[in-house]
Amino acid sequence: MVNSMTGFATMRGELDGWAWVWDMRAVNARGFDLRLRLPDWLEGLDVKTRSAVGKHVTRGTVTLGLKLTRDTAEFGEKLNRDALARVFGHLAEINSSAGQAGVELAPTSAADIISLRGILVSDNTEDDAAPLISALEAELPILVNAFNQMRQTEGAALSGVLSGQLDHIADLTAQAGKLADARKDQMASKLRENLSRILDNTDGADAGRVAQELALIAVKSDVTEEIDRLDAHVSAARELLASSEAIGRKLDFLSQEFNREANTLCSKAQSADLTRVGLDLKATIDQMREQVQNVE
Description:
By secondary structure, the chain is an alpha+beta fold. The protein has two domains: 7-153, no CATH class; 156-292, Butyryl-CoA Dehydrogenase, subunit A, domain 3. Helices cover 64% and strands 14% of the residues. It contains nine helices and six strands; from the N terminus they run βββαβαβααβααααα. The strands form two sheets. Strands 1-2-4-3 form a four-stranded mixed beta sheet. The chain has a two-stranded antiparallel ribbon with strand order 5-6. Helix 5 (125-201) runs antiparallel to helix 9 (272-292). It is elongated and about 105 Å long. The N and C termini lie close together (11 Å).
């Protein structure tokens, strides 16, 4: 089963006047990088979130955000004007520094400010945090599951593309094998002609040494090993696609091995038809390598 590294999930909820929106998305990356954007006063939620995501995601840059709002009219909460003034002062200083550095910041919304700890004041704010955190923690598995389902759906489509590319590589490898077999007799005849021509036109040449040199040329032009390794790589890649583990790194390494064998095949070809097949192999392998970058 193939999982894509890219994915997206969102979820809404509410409790006791609180309303929230989870937003989880991921893009490709060599390793695993989890970036959380959670209100800092929800103590312990970041630890639970990292644990819930880390159990199911091994690669990719994952951004998980939570936006909280509360119906202040229902609870009679008031703004802490001193805290609000401090926030405005800090924002002004940050915007000024950013302007001097030539950095453009996204605008800060009222919802962003009101979610900060200490901006809204009520007698039971701290008491309300525990049930809110519990409700948010209970939603984490559902959110991550929805995120994984999307990645699995994309991964299934990706697996189909990779399987098709492997089939094409296998077909091209078989063609290369047939062309290599067909040219063996031709190459042997040509080497014999070259040996005879050299011996007829060279006085005192060591026939044994000349034969050894020609045999070495024949060995260097033999592509049997490259074709065998390409066949082995195709089988290994198909086994990986059927695996339930994270296979992105292994497929990436294997695609490099595919490319190495195709390059060697082209360099040894000495035949227009075999060179054409080798170039088709390289093109298909490059397409596969691009797709592999999306695999977890």
